[in-house]
Amino acid sequence: MSATARPYHHGNLREALLAAGERALETTGAANLSLRELAREVGVSHAAPRRHFADRQALLDALALNGFERFGAQLDHALATAGEDFTTRILALARAYVGFATTRPALIELMFASKHQAGAPPELAQAADRAFAVALAVVVDGQAAGAVVPGDPERLAKIAFALLQGLVAIANNHMLDDQPLDALRDAAVERLLLGFAPR
Amino acid sequence: MSATARPYHHGNLREALLAAGERALETTGAANLSLRELAREVGVSHAAPRRHFADRQALLDALALNGFERFGAQLDHALATAGEDFTTRILALARAYVGFATTRPALIELMFASKHQAGAPPELAQAADRAFAVALAVVVDGQAAGAVVPGDPERLAKIAFALLQGLVAIANNHMLDDQPLDALRDAAVERLLLGFAPR
DNA sequence: ACCTGAACACCGTTCAAGT
DNA sequence: ACCTGAACACCGTTCAAGT
Lengths: 199, 199
Known about the structure:
The structure is a homodimer. Chain A has about 200 residues and is mainly α. Helix content of chain A is about 70%, strand content about 0%. Chain A has helices at about 15-30, 35-40, 55-80, 85-105, 105-115, 120-145, 155-170, 180-195. At the A-B interface, α7 and α8 of A face α7 and α8 of B.
């Protein structure tokens, strides 16, 4: 696995560029990410990335897609290990969501920004839909268990999704002031569940 | 006020650049906004903006600050014309917030992104705080009226703020699917008020 | 099949010089 | 006080040529 000596063919250029790209994303931000800089870091000429990514946007799209895959896996894992109680499940989901998004602020922003760009690969929108489907399923389960009011589950899931996404925005934009994120997130879920509960 | 003939001194360069900048922001996005392009549009040399904005970021900061001022004014106006009923007031606030943010997607993103950048002018953070203070005041009023549970109003206001910011993110990232935004926003406020109400 | 090197058209930023 | 023009160091992208 050691690749200290680099012959003409890098052998692993695509993955190396993605790894360097994700580092650069969180340190300098998507706007300042430079393809030439990544090539330098990885030790190839500035034109070499072209073989693997048609342009800068293609590399950003690949980073976003990769992010969605890990994001979805983390949400699935949280639910799979969460037990059966509805409140516990939705708390587990919220913690996984907020945890992923606040440890990778630039990536989560890129993920949702790339998704709807003109010419974005359809896999991106599909991956985002799969992540949203997890939240939808939880709402449907909650309705079946009588813990959530009846009504369009898509709408209720979008409200829940908005709340989580907003908490992430507050945390990542440094608007928490002195609020600890964990307590704020759990309090938000508590209020949401009360608002979703039948009277 | 006509300035068709442009002598050596533009006379209004700062405002002209800001106006062109806000147009460019919404059409091409902050990442693709080019200072040289703005100078061309406005009819000055590429170095002229330097007199009014130290660098590209300074122009973006000025756009964000201007945005926060209009945003705050719109929120204030919505509350001033909203009557006294708590539910009505919070609905008016939500409509003003979501309305402003979804008609200027790139600006609202820039506003919250610029706010916490290293070296950002302190006026930005202050303007953001003033906008948040509006939401906080509504929560405090709701508690006084007995429509909102007691407890840290900062925390409750942040939850309300997160919900609105998340709705904006969903709308601006094209995740509404077939949900009409107005109905989703009003339903979200309804659920929030139920979750905030004393039992 | 994968990478290099030169070339092109763009940037942001700086600074002496012009009005 | 405000703006221009040349210059510099960077980009992303393209393409013939190398291995």
